[in-house]
Amino acid sequence: MRVLVVEDFEVLARTVGKGLRREGMAVDVVLDGADALDRLAVNRYDVVVLDRDLPGVHGDEVCRRIVAARSSSRVLMLTAASTVKQRVDGLGLGADDYLPKPFDFEELVARIRALARRPSSALPSVYEHADLTLDPARRVATRGGRRLELTPKEFGVLECLLAADGRPVSAEELLERVWDEAADPFTTVVKTTIRRLRGKLGTPDLIHTVREAGYRIGAL
Amino acid sequence: MRVLVVEDFEVLARTVGKGLRREGMAVDVVLDGADALDRLAVNRYDVVVLDRDLPGVHGDEVCRRIVAARSSSRVLMLTAASTVKQRVDGLGLGADDYLPKPFDFEELVARIRALARRPSSALPSVYEHADLTLDPARRVATRGGRRLELTPKEFGVLECLLAADGRPVSAEELLERVWDEAADPFTTVVKTTIRRLRGKLGTPDLIHTVREAGYRIGAL
DNA sequence: GGCGCGGTGACACCACGGTGACAGCCGCTG
DNA sequence: CAGCGGCTGTCACCGTGGTGTCACCGCGCC
């Protein structure tokens, strides 16, 4: 599997590159957008791991080019901006997946593998779980074909749970991802939001509570 | 559509800028090459209308830079030199089109529109959504066969929403695309324009509000 | 039993988006 | 030139639903 890593923070770039090679991938690393485009013109990559904030040619622009060129490469966008809003922006550009920094290396590997497995091009970047679907770009979630009327926070939480794909997500992590800024550490918003989400989903135990660890999307 | 006009003859520059705005484009005007490069570093333009003979940084140089930066902007070169040879020179630098002075304003508009359409040339040149149609080139929108009398801004907003194809478009994004860059960040124009648009469309919820995320054209 | 964690329902706040009125600007026309 | 009308943008105001807090409850565990 061929992977191109585009990341201007050199230390991170090299670390990621080395790690992925250890996972058996053929990895090229470049440090800016212009170089990335050069490589893309010459080589065929399965997955492009793309930092959004790049000097010179911005990551968004690189992404747009890849999509415009109808390349078969999947794009995994990395970004420091983890708010739901910015996430939507990224996917709107045509990225196939999205990973907010800081990320767990294992998760990066898993997502790259998942992307590489995807049959072909413009797969809708939509989460599916049983009869539940969530489209981050369009901000639409459905259950059994019926549209769910979710508020932004509820949507964000559900998105995180689906992205975690069965792994439990702690309240702190949810706070950090969905509520961005420094939040009151004693807040109880998360549990309240989870409760409301459960209510709207109908089946309360679709979201499973893992004691001391958080919540995970359940195998029904 | 965002356009940057680079022309050192101030009267001409202002006239062209004004005219293009009347055509519904978001236009920035600068009078020399250095300013042009500054703007290009910050903003994303669909088309750059570039006079070839500029004081300071020459138009050719600006063009070369744009191409070198692999910007997505298309370059329309304006010049007093109309011989075939020089024309070839211009295109050789990477310009996408070429218009000898003096030119017909209508033709300028037509060429800009053509350039803006080019990257996604395979795309249909007219948007359709349910009983709504919008033709960007001819600036005509209809609903259920009846022509809609839209102002330029309203038209621009609707065009953006249709181009986003169901994805929500934030107020900031609309501001950037439909209005020019010097936009007051606290302005409320967008919501007012949306309101007027909704009024003219008849069905207010054809444009759906997605809280915190923007507006989307919406079935569903 | 007491403690800690998570679920529950109620409540209050306020930020966001909708609304209507108005004013400046500009081009057109007489 | 004055007068007019259409397009834009601003502002003040309102209603509402999204959001966060709190008190309380229920349950399982040491």
How much strand content do the residues of chain A show? 15-25%
Instruction: Please give the count of helices of chain A.
Output: 8
How many DSSP E strands of chain A?
A: 11
Please mark out the parts of chain A with pLDDT under 50 across 5 or more consecutive residues, or reply none: 119-124
Multimer state: homodimer
How are strands sequenced across the largest beta sheet of chain A? 2-1-3-4-5
Termini Cα gap of chain A: 34 Å
Decide which structural class fits the backbone of chain A. Answer: alpha/beta
Gyration radius from CA atoms of chain A, angstroms: 18 Å
What's the shape of chain A?
A: elongated
Main β-sheet description of chain A: 5 strands, parallel
- The level of helicity of chain A is 40-55%
Topology of chain A as a string of helices (H) and strands (E):
EHEHEHEHEHEEEEHHHEE
Averaging pLDDT over every residue of chain A, what do you get? 81
* Biggest interface, residues from each chain: A-B, 20 and 18 residues
